[in-house]
Design brief:
By secondary structure, this protein is α/β, with parallel strands linked by helices. The protein has a single domain, classed as 3-Layer(aba) Sandwich (Rossmann fold), CATH 3.40.50. Helices cover about 45% and strands about 10% of the residues. The protein has seven helices and five strands. Strands 2-1-3-4-5 form a five-stranded parallel β-sheet, with helices on both faces. Strand 3, helix 3 and strand 4 form a beta-alpha-beta unit. The radius of gyration is 15 Å and the shape is globular.
């Protein structure tokens, strides 16, 4: 079973979301990284994340925006610039700022969720994530396979290319996701 990658620097938020996901019946293991650079390293399989048996590519990334080292929007931009890395990314943020929401969708987020302040609302959100993203959503086959070594090498050499690219299929998916909201 593919893991969820939780990109979050607040230990309370890590614990609360993982508890809510377990309570919702999500069986996927959750891998946690606490800054944006660790997220990129994890997805590249670089450094301490080189062992793909221990750190497999996730089926879903839950991404906070306000992250140390590399901000969440830059992590999202990096993910979408990687050819062959079609991973669903949900932004989970305390920010409800329209500019943050618009930027996340423009960069290819599949969804933007505002972290609720009440445990019951977090439980509802976790159930919705489990029911849709972990049970019903169908991702491209390449999302379930490791990226080609050339993609990984290219990403290591230039993690923030100047050109912004969004894989064609994600643009349509993002449009449909926004229409559902």
């Amino acid at each position: 079973m593919k893991p969820i990658l939780q990109v979050e620097d607040d230990l309370n938020d890590i614990f609360l979301l993982q508890h809510a996901l377990k309570k919702a019946g999500a069986e996927n293991p959750v891998q946690v990284v606490t800054d944006g650079q660790e997220a990129i390293d994890y997805l590249q399989g670089a450094g301490k994340f080189a062992d793909r048996a221990q750190f497999p590519l996730p089926c879903l990334v839950l991404l906070d925006l306000n992250m140390p080292c590399v901000p969440g929007l830059d992590v999202l931009r990096w993910i979408r610039q990687q050819a062959g890395m079609s991973i669903a990314v949900l932004v989970l943020s305390t920010s409800g700022e329209e500019s943050d929401i618009a930027a996340a969708y423009r960069l290819g987020a599949n969804g933007f969720l505002i972290k609720p302040s009440h445990a019951s609302k977090l439980a509802e959100m976790a159930k919705a994530i489990k029911d849709f993203w972990l049970t019903h959503a169908t991702l491209p086959k390449e999302a379930l396979a490791a990226p080609a070594e050339s993609v990984v090498a290219s990403a290591r050499a230039n993690p923030f290319p100047d050109k912004q690219m969004l894989p064609g299929g994600w643009a349509a998916l993002t449009s449909r996701t926004m229409a559902i909201k």
